[in-house]
Structures are given as structure tokens and as C-alpha cells.
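A further point concerns the way the authors explain their paired sequence and structure data. An entry of this sort, consisting of the sequence and the corresponding C-alpha cells, reads as follows:
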Amino acid sequence: MCGRFAQQRPASELAEIFGAEPLADELGERFNVAPTDPALVVAQRDERRAIVAWSWGLVPHWAAEAPRRPPPFNARAETLERSPLFAESFRRRRCLVPVDAFYEWRRLADGSRQPHAIRRADRRPLALAGIWAGARLPSGEIRRTFAIVTSPPNAAVAPLHDRMPVVVPEAAWGRWLDRTAAVDGELRGLFEPDESLALDIYPVGRLVNSVRNDGPELLEPVGA
């Protein structure tokens, strides 16, 4: 699963990296983004690729009102195509979620959980596979939301958790974002664990356990 991540880069820098237009207000450096928070997302809008700010936790387009409980923030790759909640978004509304790191927790012998940061070894952003939806709320506002697609982990992440977010390689960004691209073996192939992805994985302090904490110290390594 993926329940927290860091997003340090401004929309303007992400726009340059992803060849997109920055349409979102800057959210500032954030090191502990949690479900229901707004986050910067790369999406295809008409003929242009754009950086937008949407809420993390997918509310389907057919929702008649705002959900009473937190909406799902992860979507399992194995069931995307048959899920009433996610299938249409997977077919027609895919996005990328650029993160500088995401967090997972390893359970220790004493029963406590040690948080770890996971990021690319070259410090470029991880482009996580996302799906999105737009729901019209009772106020008439259209609220756009997203979920992160997860799959079984690669060998590097497996000691921490039995799931990890799907990382879309740069060569596949355009195909993933293309709203006209049919779901086929090429897209499904992105869900296979990528053993070639070079990652830095290291323990961090327990400050990240609380959504009230934020700041660069959350990404500082500590002794396990």
C-alpha cells in the first residue's frame, strides 16, 4: 500500500520534468502528504498535459454526495478492471503522481513499527500510477480526486510490505496518460514488479507517524 509520501518539488519544476503546463497553485514543500490532502498530479487535459492539484482519495463520478468516510486512496492493480469503483477511471482517467519519496513501515520484533523512506537512488521523482475521477457535489462543485495504484512489491520493497505503488517508467508516461489508449497487455505489464528500479530505502524517525508533523527532518535517516 501507499499511505504517505513526500512531494517537495514545486508545480513549475514538475511541469518541466513531465513536459506539462503548471495549472495548479503552488502547495509548498511537503514531507508527509496523507489521504484526503491535496497533492500535485500529472494529468492529460484535452490536448495538453497539465500539473493540477487534486485530493488524494478517489470519489467516483456517480457519487451523489461527499463521502461520509475517507474514500479509498489505493487501488489494487489486480482488480482494477472489474472493480465498480475503479474500472471506468482505469479505462479513461489515468494520471501520474510525482513523489520524492513514499513511506512504508516494517514491524519489529517488539511489535513496534519502524518507518522507512523509499526514493529513487538518482533523486528524480517517482512517477506513481494513479487513476482519477470527477464528482459533482451537492453544491454544484466538481471535485477531482485520485487514488494510487498498487501491486505486489519488487525484491527491494518486499521486506517492508506486501504491496507497493506502481512506478511508471518515463518511456510509458505518455501511454499511461493517454485517455484514448485501450487497456492492453502493454498497460497491464506496468503492474509487474520492476526489479531494475534503483531505490534508496532507509529508516526514518517516527515523526512521520503523525500527520500533524511535516518538514525535511522527516526524511532524515536514523538508526534502525
About this structure: The chain has a mean pLDDT of 93. The first strand starts at residue 5 and ends at 7.
